[in-house]
Structures are given as C-alpha cells and as structure tokens.
C-alpha cells in the first residue's frame, strides 16, 4: 500500500510550480499538501482538522457532479485526501493560460485600417452667399480638406424651404466648380442651402448655411466708378486707338447712355459695349474730330449718375511763320518769327533754332525750347555764310517742317589796326641807398661767419668791402656776393686777427653810400 501512495504523492508535485494561484484561494491548505510525502498513516489525523478548508475548493467543483462519492472525502481522508482537490485544482491554473489567447484575439480587427481608404471626403469649407437676385442665389465655397484616395467626383447643392424638412437637389449631376447659381427661385421665399462633396466612397457631411437666404432683389443706386487716369484730360495721338473701360454699379441692371454735346454718338466711328458691371468706349483710329467732352449716364428708374470724359487727340504742329533775319553785326545774328497757324490741338511748348554754314551744309541746333518768337545767335565764325531754320514743338513733338530764312547772314572780316598803348616813361635813376645796414657780430675762432646788408640804386651800384678802411681785394679768405640787392661777405675760419671794423660801400654815377659794423672773434 505504501508503494501505491508513492505515485499519489507525485500528483501533488504538479501544483508546486503553480502554488501562487492556489495558495491565494486555499489559504493554509498548501503546507499540509507538501507533508504527505514523508508522512505515514499515523499522521493522517493531523491534516484532518486542516483539511476542513478543503471543501472550499468544492466551490470550484461544479464540473465534478460525475463524482457522486463527494461525501466520501471526509470518510476516507487517509486514502487520498489531497489527490481529489489537487486533481480539481490543477486544471484551474491550466485554465489561466488559455485566457491570454483571448487577448491576442483583440488585434483581430487589424484589417480595419483599410476603412480610412474608403472614408468619404470631409465637408466643404467656407460656404457663403455671393449674390442674391430676384429669382436666383449664387454660392461659393472651398474644397474640403480631405478628399480621399479616389478624389472628388463633384458637389451636390441641396435646398430646403424654411419650415420644411424636404431637401431637394438643385443640380442634376455633380460638378467640380466651387461656385454655383441656383436659378428659378420664387421671390420672397426663404431657403436653406447645403453643399455635399461626393466621391467613390460616398458623400461628405453637408456644409450648411447658418441662416436661411431671402430671395429678393437687392436694390443699389447707380454709381459710376471713374478710373483715376480718366478724371483728367485723356490725351491720344492721331491714329492711335482709344480703348477705355469704365466700371459702374447698380441693381437692377442700369441703363447706360453715352452722349457728346447732348447728341448721340456716331456709331460708325465709336463702338460702345456694355456689361453688367462696366462700359467700354472704343475708337479704332482716333482723329482730331474725336476730341471733346463725352457724357456718360447710368440710370435706374429715374435715379442716375453722370460723369464727363474729356478726350483730346493731338498731332504735331504746323511750322512757324514769317521767319526773318532782323540784323547781323560782328559775330551775331538776330532772328524773328510768328507762331504757327495750327498748334496740333496742343499748346506750343517752345521752338528749336538751327544753323547751317555754307561750307559744310549741315544743320546744328543752337537753341532748344526757346519760348519767345525772337532770338539772338552769337559766336559765329568770321568769313562764314549762315542759313537758319526754326521748328515748333508741342506735346506730340516737333513740327514736320521748319521755317527757313529766305536770306543768308555773311559774317564779314573787319579791318583793325593794332595800336600799342602808350606808357609814359619814368626816370628810374637813383643814387645808392642801403635799406638794411650791417649789424655788429661776435663769432668763434675757426667757425665761418657772414655779414649781410641790402642796397638799392639805379644804375646798379658797385659794391666795395673794406676792413679797417682798407679795401679787401682778391683774398681767398673772403667771398663777396650780391644778388637782388642783397650784399653778403663770408669770412672763412676767422682768427682773432680778423676782428675789426668792416665797411660796405656802394657807388654809382649818382653817388655813393656806406655802412659798417664791428666783428669780434673769440
């Protein structure tokens, strides 16, 4: 019988790796389960009091109705007390691991990421009313942020009368434009409007106007919005095209009327094209006769707005008239003329004067923008013969032709004799006179020294140097010089013997003069 118990003792070894789950449920029943291995039948009464909690696992024995002798467990505690609960407990921990497999079943919906590919587009943005008329309403919006992989097929506009819940499509087929006009509406109705975006994956959430739209004509007084550059005189050249667009506003559609001098326009020359918001004035080739003031009238049921457009068509002026040579003197010529008969429908800005000499035959401009009808031309070359011509100038440019002088101007050579200016002779004779005398000097032995004085006189006086009243002649120790009336005497390496009274004497035919000084050599 002991050997039969040995295999029974091996069964409680299975729950050893799983005691945490079992101990939590059985409390103190775990320790006696480990003791049956060395236990003998004598120790069986000890676990009996502790096996009383063993019926607790009986709560886990709903699958054990097949064991009718469940009441025999207390009668035979010595035979196999532990195997019965262990056999029922061992599957309990085994049921724990199957629970995790239930968790991996959670990612089973992973194929759902494919659904975003089939999501419908988002709703259109910025739905707004652009214009309302008596029987229509114009809407604008922006494309949705998300259009899906398949892209948009178009939009559907739906309307519903205020107070009703029946939405009807205003367009038969989807369209891709972000602007739509709903036609054939009844004046005075209030309608709700919404727009859906369509794609292959379905329709978006509709974008709906917050407030209903009242269908009625919005009256607006007529007003002409004249461009800034047309508020002044509009100037064009002959032959140029005149093309002007003048915007206006007003509801309902205003009547546009053009007149010139209270008379209808000549439609053979002037083309007028009107739209709902502007009028276009066009002339293919402008002529002088097209100049003038044009009146534009925009009228709605008695209310009107007027504007005046001043057009001026210009061309180059005619040449000046009656150009004459008034006078020729020395190197100068005086010209005079009259203004042109035709100024080209523009104010004369000035005149251009040109000259041409007979030798070269070329024209050179001597005056530009001369504002007067006369001028004087100077710095002409003696011996040349000159012709002159004058152009008139306006905003369009110079006149095509010029007025030319009928005569020529010859610059003659004038005979002149040179007479030198008579200068009175002046007596420059003067006796010698010292303007700067000699000064006493003290020098050191062996160092050269100079004596200076200044003299004037005419004729130039003769200079004589003396030492102690003795004339100094050709002595290499002394060097005498005179330049520009400055007299100098150099004494080279003097010695005490060279000291004394030095005298400078100037002599000419008118007299003589002298100065002296004392020299000390130490």
TrEMBL record:
<feature type="region of interest" description="Disordered">
    <location>
        <begin position="1"/>
        <end position="131"/>
    </location>
</feature>
<keyword id="KW-0787">Thick filament</keyword>
<feature type="domain" description="Ig-like">
    <location>
        <begin position="432"/>
        <end position="516"/>
    </location>
</feature>
<keyword id="KW-0130">Cell adhesion</keyword>
<dbReference type="InterPro" id="IPR003599">
    <property type="entry name" value="Ig_sub"/>
</dbReference>
<dbReference type="InterPro" id="IPR003961">
    <property type="entry name" value="FN3_dom"/>
</dbReference>
<dbReference type="Pfam" id="PF07679">
    <property type="entry name" value="I-set"/>
</dbReference>
<comment type="function">
    <text>Binds to myosin; probably involved in interaction with thick myofilaments in the A-band.</text>
</comment>
<dbReference type="Pfam" id="PF00041">
    <property type="entry name" value="fn3"/>
</dbReference>
<feature type="compositionally biased region" description="Pro residues">
    <location>
        <begin position="54"/>
        <end position="68"/>
    </location>
</feature>
<dbReference type="GO" id="GO:0007155">
    <property type="term" value="P:cell adhesion"/>
</dbReference>
<comment type="similarity">
    <text>Belongs to the immunoglobulin superfamily. MyBP family.</text>
</comment>
<keyword id="KW-0514">Muscle protein</keyword>
<dbReference type="InterPro" id="IPR013783">
    <property type="entry name" value="Ig-like_fold"/>
</dbReference>
<dbReference type="InterPro" id="IPR007110">
    <property type="entry name" value="Ig-like_dom"/>
</dbReference>
<dbReference type="InterPro" id="IPR036179">
    <property type="entry name" value="Ig-like_dom_sf"/>
</dbReference>
<feature type="compositionally biased region" description="Basic and acidic residues">
    <location>
        <begin position="1"/>
        <end position="13"/>
    </location>
</feature>
<keyword id="KW-0677">Repeat</keyword>
<feature type="compositionally biased region" description="Pro residues">
    <location>
        <begin position="94"/>
        <end position="110"/>
    </location>
</feature>
<dbReference type="InterPro" id="IPR013098">
    <property type="entry name" value="Ig_I-set"/>
</dbReference>
<dbReference type="InterPro" id="IPR036116">
    <property type="entry name" value="FN3_sf"/>
</dbReference>
<feature type="domain" description="Fibronectin type-III">
    <location>
        <begin position="120"/>
        <end position="218"/>
    </location>
</feature>
<dbReference type="GO" id="GO:0032982">
    <property type="term" value="C:myosin filament"/>
</dbReference>
<keyword id="KW-0393">Immunoglobulin domain</keyword>
<feature type="domain" description="Fibronectin type-III">
    <location>
        <begin position="319"/>
        <end position="414"/>
    </location>
</feature>
<protein>
    <recommendedName>
        <fullName>Myosin-binding protein H</fullName>
    </recommendedName>
</protein>
<dbReference type="InterPro" id="IPR003598">
    <property type="entry name" value="Ig_sub2"/>
</dbReference>
<dbReference type="InterPro" id="IPR050964">
    <property type="entry name" value="Striated_Muscle_Regulatory"/>
</dbReference>
<feature type="compositionally biased region" description="Basic and acidic residues">
    <location>
        <begin position="41"/>
        <end position="53"/>
    </location>
</feature>
């Amino acid at each position: 019988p002991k050997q039969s118990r040995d295999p029974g003792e091996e069964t409680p070894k299975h729950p050893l790796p799983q005691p945490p789950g079992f101990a939590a449920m059985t409390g103190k029943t775990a320790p006696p389960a480990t003791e049956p291995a060395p236990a003998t039948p004598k120790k069986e009464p000890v676990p009996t009091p502790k096996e009383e909690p063993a019926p607790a696992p009986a709560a886990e024995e709903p699958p054990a109705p097949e064991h009718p002798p469940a009441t025999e467990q207390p009668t035979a505690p010595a035979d196999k007390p532990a195997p019965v609960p262990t056999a029922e407990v061992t599957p309990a921990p085994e049921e724990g691991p199957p629970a995790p497999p239930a968790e991996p079943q959670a990612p089973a919906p992973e194929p759902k990421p494919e659904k975003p590919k089939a999501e419908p587009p988002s709703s259109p943005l910025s739905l707004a009313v652009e214009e309302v008329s008596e029987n229509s309403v114009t809407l604008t919006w922006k494309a949705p942020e998300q259009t899906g992989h398949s892209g948009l097929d178009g939009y559907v506009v739906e309307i519903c009368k205020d107070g009703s819940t029946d939405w009807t499509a205003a367009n038969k087929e989807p369209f891709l434009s972000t602007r739509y006009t709903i036609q054939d509406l009844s004046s005075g109705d209030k309608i709700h409007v919404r727009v859906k975006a369509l794609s292959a994956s379905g329709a978006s959430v509709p974008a709906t106007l917050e407030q209903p739209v009242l269908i009625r004509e919005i009256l607006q007084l007529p007003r002409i919005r004249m461009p800034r550059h047309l508020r002044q005189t509009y100037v064009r050249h002959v032959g140029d095209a005149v093309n002007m667009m003048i915007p206006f506003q007003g509801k309902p559609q205003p009547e546009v009327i053009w007149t010139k001098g209270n008379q209808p326009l000549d439609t053979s020359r002037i083309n007028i094209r009107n739209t709902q918001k502007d009028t276009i004035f066009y002339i293919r080739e402008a002529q002088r006769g097209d100049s003038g003031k044009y009146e534009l009238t925009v009228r709605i049921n008695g209310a009107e707005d007027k504007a005046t457009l001043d057009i001026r068509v210009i061309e180059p002026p005619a040449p000046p008239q009656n150009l004459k040579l008034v006078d020729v003197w020395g190197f100068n010529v005086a010209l005079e003329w009259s203004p042109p008969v035709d100024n080209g429908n523009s104010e004369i800005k000035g005149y251009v004067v040109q000259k041409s000499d007979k030798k070269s035959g070329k024209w050179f401009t001597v005056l530009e923008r001369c504002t007067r009808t006369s001028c004087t031309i100077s710095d002409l070359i003696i011996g040349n013969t000159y012709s002159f011509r004058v152009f008139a100038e306006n905003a369009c440019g110079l006149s095509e032709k010029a007025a030319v002088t009928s005569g020529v101007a010859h610059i003659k050579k004038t005979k002149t004799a040179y007479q030198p200016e008579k200068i009175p002779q002046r007596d420059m004779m003067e006796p010698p006179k010292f303007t700067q005398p000699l000064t006493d000097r003290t020098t050191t032995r062996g160092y050269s020294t100079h004596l200076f004085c200044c003299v004037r006189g005419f004729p130039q006086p003769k200079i004589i140097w003396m030492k102690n009243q003795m004339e100094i002649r050709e002595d290499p120790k002394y060097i005498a010089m005179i330049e520009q009336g400055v007299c100098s005497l150099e004494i080279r390496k003097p010695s005490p013997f060279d000291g004394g009274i030095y005298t400078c004497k100037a002599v000419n035919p008118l007299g003589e003069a002298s100065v002296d000084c004392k020299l000390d050599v130490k």
